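Following up on my earlier thread - several people asked me to post the actual chain instead of describing it. Fair enough. Here it is, all 323 residues.
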Amino acid sequence: MIENVSAIASQVPKTKILVSYFQAAHHFTNSRKLMNRIVRSAIITLVVLSCTSSILFFSIQSASTLPKSAIELPASIDIAQKIDFSRHFRELGVEGAILIYDLNNDRIFQHNPQRNATAFLPASTFKILNSLIALETGVISNEIAVLTWDGITRSIPEWNRDLNMKEAFKLSAVWFYQVLARRVGYERMQKWVAQAGYGNQKIGSKDDIDKFWLAGELRITPQEQIQFLRRLYNNDLPFSKRSLSIVKDIMVNEQTPDYTIRAKTGLFGFDDNLTPKIGWYVGYLEKGKNVYFFTTNIDVRNQKDISARIELTRRCFKELAVL
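Reply from S.P.:
Thanks for posting it. Predicted structure:
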């Protein structure tokens, strides 16, 4: 049998053996090339996946170290950019900023973000906190307790009489709140301003006790005003429910069957020759089951600009279909 196989093999032409050999070698070479390509592709895929995983890991790690507001801010800004408040500033001829926070939808709408992050004297918007501190410390018993006018004639006629807190808040009577601040005293005032986390919490020296919110060191940004107002609304400030309830009541600026606006105006530079002065309008609007916190901050160059604070805010709310 073996001899027969050998005989048959000897009859096969050598050329056919060579052809079969080269064909096999060519097939082997192609297989190696294919295998090399597969290996290279696998290596490249592994490298790409590794880099992608690293990027995702560090992105998640970085995001986890940021405050919640910082993570959510880009989305909020994108929403805000779909609403253009700038035309209202142009039509009213004023320069400034506005910031509105929609609580239920967690949305921020704003004009001039840079100014909304800039600190200013709070001026009479500090009357919100001043009222809380005065009530909590007992230097005034309630919103209808009267302080006797000191007889000094001031530039606003409505101030020149005896006033209770509710009237003084609505008229923004400076002398009334200066009396309250002096009664509270420097140490207690500093303690309460710090505990409330209000702005930069600096009330200056003891001599500044009755003017630090008008011409002193105290500063607050529009963003911080919103934070303070949210804590007020949520009863998250270090004051009794009674004090918070009274202040919320005297803050009512407008009330209809559809909505309620609780707010306070402010004007920095009222008694000096500075131009422009800075005008504030801060508060929150309750409508249905939602709340909109707002702060408007503008340059005041003339009498017309003073009333523009409220008008500007209302126009922006109409833009949002809230009013």
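The radius of gyration is 36 Å. That should answer part of your original question.
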